[in-house]
Amino acid sequence: MLHTITHLSDVPRAQLDPITTPTEKLSVFALALSRPLRNETIALCCDHQQRGLGIFAFDSKLKLTQIIDRIIGAAINLDSIATICLLSSRRGASRDATDSSQFFMAKNRCQDAGLELTNWFLVANGGTCALS
Fold first, then answer.
1. What is the pLDDT of residue 57?
2. How large is the C-alpha radius of gyration of the chain?
């Protein structure tokens, strides 16, 4: 549910604390998520120890497969990036019929670039779901 994406008092510290659980990832995303919700995708970039190294936000109504190259391009410019976790907020429904195939294609594109796409959280009014 959307109220699971609220600011937490114990947010993992950048470059220090591992960000491994969905709750920790969502607490970091809550810092960057626009309110009220609009169409955007946020990328959380982490190192091999799952410590956060950077967050990028992309305002876009485009599907994930249409913006994954921009996300990869931004991520590979940071040293030590090993994994990417994504959150997309949408107006309307949280799930689309093509989400699973979009995630699979984006995961492959990241793998081709030497990165691992770990999760994709989808947020909309009334719900949050995760693909991994």
1. 94
2. 14
Please count the residues of the chain: 132
Q: Where are the alpha helices (DSSP H) in the chain?
A: 22-32, 64-75, 99-112
Q: What is the mean pLDDT of residues 51-62?
A: 92
CA distance 127 to 125: 6
User: Which residue is listed with tokens 């959280």?
Assistant: 121
Any idea which residue has 């994994």 for tokens? 83
Distance, CA of 4 to CA of 68 (rounded, Å): 26
pTM: 0.89
- The terminus-to-terminus CA distance of the chain in angstroms comes to 18
**DSSP assignment of 13-43:** PTTTSB--SHHHHHHHHHHH--SS--SEEEE
Scanning the structure block, which residue is given the tokens 């107006």?
Answer: 91
